[in-house]
């Protein structure tokens, strides 16, 4: 008789301490831990402490369509349906909701800003900051090419951590516009005809982001360059003809806890409605609103209170051997909790920006 099969009939021994999946054999649990990259940075159910890959899966766990019954019951009386935390009582929930659900950003500022060039970008020469400064970028595109489907940047906006506009302008296109997409962009030919040329916009934004640091030097953390926040920044930067180091980019379309699945992003409109509690992009779209939304999402994610670890990433050299094949025998003897203790995240959690890791 196989001795191991008797041992593994004690099912709780092989239950993942993070997602509670059950395995028949310890080696399968070890395999699961090796590939799932569970960590303290994953969204967690405030009732059963289960860890989820994303806020979307935590939402399913708590709200449905097929929620975990015990958790859903508690959540329905004192859970916040925006940030998904559980409060002590229905009373503290009411207090909390007032702060958690944000009002729509001030429409007056944005409509004023949309009229003219706004240029408040300064390079700071001052002393080193403990946390790098953060700016949000958003663009609005008009159409080019024969069928009007080629995206051309026509408006750009850059805001700081306090939603102040640092830079905002219409952009003069470098190729002919064949579809102004007026219903969503609000852009008319006269807005961009004599606007700031793309090259100039590019240079201004690049200088501001690098903040006096040569681009080649922005390879390590702790420099003067600014963190860039946005939604789908690859596309925005592409349309602006710019490059910026991945290390300095915080993209709400690519941050695993905010994604729909491991491959699919949520729209910024959906994220803003669901995780901030206000509406954007309801008619003519203002890039200022997109900046404010992505910045607020970033700030919420950055302020998550996760335990500090010395080497938080699975890719940190110190963690290279945590689940190495040659440690298999040792790993199979460890408890599910101990396996979780050595497991590390495969993505950079934004809470690390505040912990001085960046
Ligand atoms: Zn698991
Ligand atoms: Zn974290
Ligand atoms: Zn739960
Ligand atoms: Zn909340």
From TrEMBL:
The keyword Zinc-finger applies. The gene is LOC110794334. This is RNA exonuclease 4. It is found in: Nucleus. Keywords: Exonuclease, Hydrolase, Metal-binding, Nuclease, Nucleus, Zinc, Zinc-finger. The keyword Transcription does not apply. Residues 14-43 form the C2H2-type domain. It holds the Pfam family RNase_T. The lineage of its organism: Eukaryota, Viridiplantae, Streptophyta, Embryophyta, Tracheophyta. GO terms for molecular function: 3'-5' exonuclease activity; exonuclease activity; nucleic acid binding; zinc ion binding. SUPFAM superfamilies: Ribonuclease H-like. Its main location: nucleus. InterPro entries: REX4_DEDDh_dom, REXO1/3/4-like, Ribonucl_H, RNaseH-like_sf, RNaseH_sf, Znf_C2H2_type. GO terms for cellular component: nucleus. Belongs to the REXO4 family. PROSITE patterns: ZINC_FINGER_C2H2_1 (PS00028), ZINC_FINGER_C2H2_2 (PS50157).
């Amino acid at each position: 008789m196989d001795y191991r099969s008797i041992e593994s009939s004690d099912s709780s021994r092989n239950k993942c301490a993070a997602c509670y999946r059950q395995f028949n054999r310890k080696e399968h649990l070890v395999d699961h831990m090796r590939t799932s990259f569970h960590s303290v940075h994953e969204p967690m159910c405030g009732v059963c402490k289960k860890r989820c890959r994303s806020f979307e899966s935590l939402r399913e766990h708590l709200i449905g369509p097929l929620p975990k019954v015990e958790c859903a019951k508690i959540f329905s009386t004192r859970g916040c349906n925006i940030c998904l935390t559980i409060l002590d009582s229905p009373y503290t929930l009411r207090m909390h909701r007032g702060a958690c659900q944000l009002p729509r950003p001030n429409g007056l500022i944005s409509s004023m800003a949309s009229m003219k060039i706004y240029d408040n970008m300064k390079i700071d020469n001052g002393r080193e900051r403990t946390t790098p400064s953060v700016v949000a970028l958003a663009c609005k595109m008009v159409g080019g090419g024969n069928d009007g489907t080629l995206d051309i940047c026509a408006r750009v906006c850059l805001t700081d951590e306090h939603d102040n506009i640092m830079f905002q302008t219409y952009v003069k296109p470098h190729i002919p516009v064949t579809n102004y997409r007026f219903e969503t962009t609000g852009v008319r030919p006269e807005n961009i005809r004599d606007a700031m040329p793309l090259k100039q916009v590019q240079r201004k934004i690049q200088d501001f982001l690098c903040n006096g640091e040569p681009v080649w030097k922005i390879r390590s953390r702790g420099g003067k360059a600014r963190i860039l926040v946005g939604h789908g920044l690859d596309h925005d930067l592409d349309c602006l003809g710019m490059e910026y180091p991945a290390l300095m980019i915080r993209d709400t379309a690519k941050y695993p806890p905010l994604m729909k699945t491991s491959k699919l992003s949520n729209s910024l409109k959906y994220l803003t409605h669901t995780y901030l509690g206000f509406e954007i992009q309801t008619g003519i779209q203002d890039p200022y609103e997109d900046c404010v939304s992505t910045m607020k999402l970033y700030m919420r994610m950055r302020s998550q209170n996760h335990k500090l670890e010395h080497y938080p990433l699975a890719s940190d050299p110190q963690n290279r051997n945590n689940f190495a094949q040659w440690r298999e025998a040792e790993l199979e003897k460890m408890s599910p909790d101990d396996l979780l203790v050595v497991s590390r995240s495969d993505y950079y959690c934004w809470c690390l920006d505040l912990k001085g890791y960046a």
